[in-house]
């Protein structure tokens, strides 16, 4: 018993920070940032800084809740304690659906990136292949999954560092190439080439790049010293903000913002005019590794989450059955596989704007959960003036990102998709869950 307890509280604060970097970086950053750059230009760096601030508020809110009352159900449990079992039910299923959309987003991104080498292969073919590979990794079990994820996290972090090094070499003109001289925006029009409206619409893609941070909040209960959770979150967000803003700042300074496209990573675009024949291939492969890592992590996560929902009475008890393979609840994995199949079908029917639509919808659902986390913190824990101010700022930033989708026509289908999913979840919660008072009196 003591060994198990020791194992479950074995992380130092800096280990949690580094683990967070590996879990968070995915194609939302590597590919989705291209959409944000296309909307707002060089000011995408400011969008990422604001997103980092909003994400920090969420991390601190969840870390404090976890330190105060560690629970397996985590933010679903806290939402239920703060606002009732209907909200807890909706929060859990909203998070499950957001992760299914993340899986679909990553699958689509992986398929787009793979066409860099195989131009004529349909997206759905690659989506099918990566789906099968992802299921294979999850079926390795917890230990096998952890080993694979550690390797993938190291590869994608190394890819960013490679671009930063090459970017600085290009800025100081130590690389041979025909690219324009790097430039820093010196006026409002250069910084915001599409105005405040474009900047507003880009915020959701900046927030989406930080998606997954709530998982690290859950792992705060594994810290040796629970009070180190805020320190760990500060280091994590600071490290991510530096990596993101430095790399994106280099990218937008090297080429004009209108050259970026959601069919290619901004970092490949930025170095396309330099004589680096190896770079597009190596970096594209590294991004595929990053996306595959995020996809399998989400697949593993929804499998575990559904079991927890069933245990708490928020999902059919069948998903809690001990039909297991290497500690994996196969019924829960089966429902996640249905989500994978839907993503493959969507890739077949909507190949054009699929990545943007799914990324937008997933980002909005994530922010719904994050807002619920912050509100639960405000309801359950004693607040100071500074904590209230920080929580309000975080909520306003997230609402700004959600509403910004409506400013751009291309993102609206994703907005409507997310609102549709959220409305269905809320309706089901209202129909199947009774308030606690009604349950106790029955």
Automatic annotation (TrEMBL):
<feature type="transmembrane region" description="Helical">
    <location>
        <begin position="199"/>
        <end position="223"/>
    </location>
</feature>
<feature type="transmembrane region" description="Helical">
    <location>
        <begin position="95"/>
        <end position="117"/>
    </location>
</feature>
<feature type="transmembrane region" description="Helical">
    <location>
        <begin position="153"/>
        <end position="175"/>
    </location>
</feature>
<dbReference type="InterPro" id="IPR036259">
    <property type="entry name" value="MFS_trans_sf"/>
</dbReference>
<keyword id="KW-0812">Transmembrane</keyword>
<feature type="transmembrane region" description="Helical">
    <location>
        <begin position="12"/>
        <end position="32"/>
    </location>
</feature>
<feature type="transmembrane region" description="Helical">
    <location>
        <begin position="388"/>
        <end position="407"/>
    </location>
</feature>
<keyword id="KW-0472">Membrane</keyword>
<dbReference type="Pfam" id="PF00324">
    <property type="entry name" value="AA_permease"/>
</dbReference>
<feature type="transmembrane region" description="Helical">
    <location>
        <begin position="277"/>
        <end position="307"/>
    </location>
</feature>
<feature type="transmembrane region" description="Helical">
    <location>
        <begin position="413"/>
        <end position="432"/>
    </location>
</feature>
<dbReference type="GO" id="GO:0005886">
    <property type="term" value="C:plasma membrane"/>
</dbReference>
<feature type="transmembrane region" description="Helical">
    <location>
        <begin position="44"/>
        <end position="63"/>
    </location>
</feature>
<feature type="domain" description="Amino acid permease/ SLC12A">
    <location>
        <begin position="18"/>
        <end position="383"/>
    </location>
</feature>
<feature type="transmembrane region" description="Helical">
    <location>
        <begin position="328"/>
        <end position="351"/>
    </location>
</feature>
<protein>
    <submittedName>
        <fullName>Proline-specific permease</fullName>
    </submittedName>
</protein>
<keyword id="KW-0813">Transport</keyword>
<keyword id="KW-0029">Amino-acid transport</keyword>
<keyword id="KW-1133">Transmembrane helix</keyword>
<feature type="transmembrane region" description="Helical">
    <location>
        <begin position="357"/>
        <end position="376"/>
    </location>
</feature>
<feature type="transmembrane region" description="Helical">
    <location>
        <begin position="123"/>
        <end position="141"/>
    </location>
</feature>
<dbReference type="GO" id="GO:0006865">
    <property type="term" value="P:amino acid transport"/>
</dbReference>
<dbReference type="InterPro" id="IPR004841">
    <property type="entry name" value="AA-permease/SLC12A_dom"/>
</dbReference>
<feature type="transmembrane region" description="Helical">
    <location>
        <begin position="235"/>
        <end position="257"/>
    </location>
</feature>
<dbReference type="GO" id="GO:0055085">
    <property type="term" value="P:transmembrane transport"/>
</dbReference>
């Amino acid at each position: 018993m003591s060994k198990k307890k020791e194992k479950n509280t074995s992380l130092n604060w800096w280990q949690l920070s580094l683990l967070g970097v590996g879990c968070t970086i995915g194609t939302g950053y590597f590919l989705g940032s291209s959409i944000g750059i296309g909307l707002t230009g060089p000011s995408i760096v400011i969008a990422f800084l604001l997103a980092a601030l909003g994400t920090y508020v969420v991390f601190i809110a969840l870390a404090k809740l976890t330190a105060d009352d560690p629970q397996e159900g985590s933010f679903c449990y806290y939402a239920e304690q703060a606002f009732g079992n209907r909200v807890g039910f909706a929060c859990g299923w909203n998070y499950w659906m957001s992760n299914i959309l993340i899986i679909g987003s990553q699958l689509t991104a992986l398929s787009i990136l793979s066409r860099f080498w195989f131009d004529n292969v349909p997206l759905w073919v690659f989506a099918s292949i990566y789906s099968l590979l992802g299921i294979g990794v999850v079926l390795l079990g917890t230990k096998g999954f952890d080993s694979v994820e550690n390797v993938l996290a190291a590869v994608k972090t190394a890819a960013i560092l490679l671009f930063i090094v090459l970017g600085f070499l290009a800025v100081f003109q130590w690389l041979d190439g025909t690219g324009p001289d790097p430039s820093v925006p010196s006026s409002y029009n250069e910084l915001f080439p599409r105005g405040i409206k474009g900047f507003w619409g880009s915020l959701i893609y900046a927030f989406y790049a930080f998606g997954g941070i709530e998982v690290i909040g859950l792992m705060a209960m594994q810290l040796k010293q629970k009070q180190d959770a805020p320190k760990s979150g500060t280091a994590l967000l600071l490290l991510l903000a530096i990596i993101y803003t430095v790399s994106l700042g280099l990218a937008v300074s090297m080429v004009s913002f209108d050259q970026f496209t959601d069919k290619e990573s901004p970092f490949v675009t930025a170095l396309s005019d330099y004589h680096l024949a190896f770079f597009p291939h190596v970096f594209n492969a590294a991004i595929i590794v990053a996306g595959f890592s995020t996809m399998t992590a989400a697949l593993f996560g929804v499998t575990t989450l559904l079991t927890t929902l069933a245990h708490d009475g928020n999902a059919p008890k069948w998903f809690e059955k001990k039909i297991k393979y290497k500690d994996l609840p196969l019924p829960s994995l089966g429902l996640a596989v249905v989500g994978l199949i839907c993503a493959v079908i969507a890739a077949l029917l909507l190949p054009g704007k699929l990545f943007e639509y799914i990324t937008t919808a997933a980002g909005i659902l994530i922010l719904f959960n994050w807002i619920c986390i912050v509100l639960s913190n405000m309801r359950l824990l004693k607040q100071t003036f500074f904590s209230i101010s920080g929580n309000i700022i975080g909520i306003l930033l997230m609402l700004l990102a959600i509403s910004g989708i409506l400013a751009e026509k291309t993102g609206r289908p994703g907005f409507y998709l997310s609102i549709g999913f959220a409305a269905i979840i809320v309706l089901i919660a209202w129909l199947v869950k009774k308030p606690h008072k009604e349950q106790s009196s029955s």
